[in-house]
């Protein structure tokens, strides 16, 4: 059976060159980076070279990149340390953030009794920036946690505008850039952001490795203890092969960005045009969306909603839900619930997310399959 992978916002296939790089490191550089002998030093050198590579592509200092297991860990660490150690009294976020942020914020609210404000999300998925400005004008030690690209709809938030507002009002800015690192140019020297987080598996790297960017002079305290690795901020023996794989993946992502982005834009446009031809009343969820994510409401009856992902899966097509079927009832995604009308929420929304590995033939197969449902 043909297999079509259109779920690249969930994770991406690893590039062969990245696998090769990791295998080489595992075979030849197994030393513990904390060991002082040459085998250990050689592993340490791989980590530091990787850090420099990542910093070069993101235009920051290597010392500002801290390796973590995932973006989820990095977000937990940053928000927790900000509240516990910087005396933050309020977090401003939004209801369309990834659960990595939302659940962390909720836990911190319960534990530390901090205030939490959610910026209004408009029906096109954008944020109410005027409201954010009003919220920020209240004098209270604040960290703002707002994502760059929404992982479900692809809606792009204006990182620069948010950052400027934050800094004018003396608030810190943490930005979840999981969906944009490796997929768009980010100049951290210029962007007014204090923290960003990333996971390698979103840009054709390995799973279980990510990093935080922590702006120079911001001194966080560790999430857990046990060693001096990563300036003592992230104890535990480093995953050398994963780190090397992540740096290689980021390097390849940026080296090929222009051509791969061009192909993906053409594919997304083609997919939307073909969907409109096949289902004239299809609607796209969100405006100003990132080039690799397309989220649509299909004009199918609510009864078909439950079966649609299952049917696509049976035909070898991997896409993601906009609505989840839980014990027989259809529960909308927390992101779409903020944006869509009651009627549209009952219909099947699909997130189709592309990579440079996808082809027009795969899109044709998706459309033909959808028409048969
Ligand atoms: N933030 C966003 C926007 C995401 O899309 C994801 C993953 O889906 C995460 C955070 C969490 O990434 P990870 O599970 O790799 O920590």
Automatic annotation (TrEMBL):
Q: Which residues cross the membrane?
A: none
Q: Where is the Aminotransferase class V domain?
A: 4-366
What's the cofactor?
Answer: pyridoxal 5'-phosphate
Catalytic activity line of the entry: (sulfur carrier)-H + L-cysteine = (sulfur carrier)-SH + L-alanine
InterPro entries the record matches: Aminotrans_V_dom, Aminotrans_V_PyrdxlP_BS, Cysteine_dSase, PyrdxlP-dep_Trfase, PyrdxlP-dep_Trfase_major, PyrdxlP-dep_Trfase_small
User: What highest taxon heads this organism's lineage?
Assistant: Bacteria
What Pfam families has UniProt attached to this entry? Aminotran_5 (PF00266)
Keywords recorded for this protein, A-Z? Iron, Iron-sulfur, Metal-binding, Pyridoxal phosphate, Transferase
EC number per UniProt: 2.8.1.7
What family is this?
Belongs to the class-V pyridoxal-phosphate-dependent aminotransferase family. NifS/IscS subfamily.
Name this polypeptide is given: cysteine desulfurase
Q: Which organism is it from?
A: Flavobacterium buctense
